[in-house]
């Protein structure tokens, strides 16, 4: 997508609708779920929540609801916040051998007494639908399609593909280098295939003069967790902007006292970009959709040819 910047200035950017794209992808997946069920396998997801982090509770509820709507089997296992690492490990061992469960997800963050790496490494890599086990991280890094792609960057890649954004040869700038979003995002954009073959720059909190990089981006993907950090003048005219950030900012005019904003100042960026994701309604719905895709991918491994 290479829009004429002037036209963009006059008309505003095209809105990339994650709700619509996510719904279309879930409808496509429904046929495969039915086919698996006819062969005796109902894809099953276990979501493990340790503690009572309010945001995590919301995410876990949304994941359970999405499984139900898609016809997947799911279990949400809630453990108290003082759960020991040993207790979590033994639960994961049980889930690893539970035949009804094809995907296991441990909701992050975990309480301090539990080592996150040790917990994530204990999940059977064949059930690691979040794609955080080193075996899957490695597979994604080398472009092995049997690896599970972390849901959020996988969803961003699908948004780009399904919006017709040409990644091949484009300069993609990823702001943020977390293991959940930034790093796997860069790996996916580098792969040789659809939604890949980009030239990738990764920026982070120690990057000097970050706006020099963001202004060069044909595709700008921002995942830092800083409300409206990227202003309109940091965006190249005609760029495609994907805003992964979800931040609560105080807003007394709202019933709940806050509103959600992204990492990009949407009202400015929409006049400069050729296409942009809103927050909410952009990347968020894609993350849940790709979790369902990964659970179905996990279940497929257990179907006899
Ligand atoms: P994270 O683990 O906190 O990582 C943030 C990254 O941003 C780090 O790499 C950090 O750099 C970088 N960063 C922080 N401040 C920066 C700055 N001023 N300039 C440049 N880079 C900066 O966060 P995350 O898990 O990746 O999540 C990022 C955002 O995406 C959050 O708002 C989160 O809520 C949202 N998110 C949304 C979804 C969804 O489904 N929509 C899913 C996941 C995350 P250093 O490494 O140098 O510290």
Compile the SSE list and pairings.
Layout: H1 5-11, E1 14-15, H2 18-38, E2 44-50, H3 54-70, E3 73-79, H4 85-96, E4 103-106, H5 116-122, H6 134-142, H7 151-162, E5 171-175, H8 182-190, E6 199-203, H9 210-214, E7 219-222, E8 240-243, E9 247-250, E10 258-261, H10 266-269, E11 275-276, H11 283-300
Parallel strand pairs: 1-11, 2-3, 2-4, 5-6, 5-7, 7-8, 8-11
Antiparallel strand pairs: 9-10
Bound molecules: NADP nicotinamide-adenine-dinucleotide phosphate (NAP).
NADP nicotinamide-adenine-dinucleotide phosphate binds near residues 181, 182 and 206.
Write a structural description:
The chain is α/β, with parallel strands linked by helices and 305 residues long. It folds into two domains: 86 residues, Leucine Dehydrogenase, chain A, domain 1 (Rossmann fold, 3-Layer(aba) Sandwich); 135 residues, Rossmann fold. Helices cover 40% and strands 16% of the residues. It contains eleven helices and eleven strands. A six-stranded parallel beta sheet has the order 1-11-8-7-5-6. β9 and β10 form a beta hairpin. α2 runs parallel beside α11 and α7 crosses α11. The N terminus is likely disordered. The protein binds NADP nicotinamide-adenine-dinucleotide phosphate (NAP).
């Amino acid at each position: 997508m290479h829009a004429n910047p002037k036209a963009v200035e006059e008309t505003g950017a095209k809105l990339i609708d994650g709700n619509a794209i996510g719904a279309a992808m879930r409808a496509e997946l429904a046929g495969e779920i039915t086919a698996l069920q006819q062969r005796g396998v109902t894809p099953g997801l276990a979501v493990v929540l340790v503690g009572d982090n309010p945001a995590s509770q919301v995410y876990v509820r949304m994941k359970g609801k999405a499984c139900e709507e898609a016809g997947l089997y799911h279990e949400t296992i809630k453990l108290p916040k003082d759960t020991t690492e040993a207790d979590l490990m033994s639960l994961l061992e049980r889930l690893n051998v539970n035949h009804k469960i094809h995907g296991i997800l441990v909701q992050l963050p975990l309480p301090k007494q539990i080592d996150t790496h040790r917990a994530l490494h204990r999940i059977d890599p064949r059930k690691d639908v979040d794609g955080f086990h080193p075996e899957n991280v490695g597979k994604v890094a080398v472009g092995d399609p049997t690896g599970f792609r972390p849901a959020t960057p996988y969803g961003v890649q699908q948004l780009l593909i399904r919006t017709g954004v040409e990644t091949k040869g484009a300069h993609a700038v990823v702001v943020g280098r977390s293991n959940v979003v930034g790093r796997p995002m860069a790996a996916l954009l580098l792969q040789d295939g659809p939604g890949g073959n980009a030239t990738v720059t990764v920026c982070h909190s120690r990057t000097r003069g970050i706006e020099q990089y963001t202004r060069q981006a044909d595709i700008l993907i921002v995942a830092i967790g800083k409300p409206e950090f990227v202003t309109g003048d940091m965006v190249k005219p005609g760029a495609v902007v994907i805003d992964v950030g979800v931040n609560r900012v105080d807003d007394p005019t709202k019933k709940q006292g806050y509103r959600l904003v992204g990492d990009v100042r949407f009202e400015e960026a929409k006049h400069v970009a050729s296409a942009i994701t809103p927050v909410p309604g952009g990347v968020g719905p894609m993350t849940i959709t790709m979790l369902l895709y990964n659970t179905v991918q996990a279940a497929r491994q257990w179907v006899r040819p």
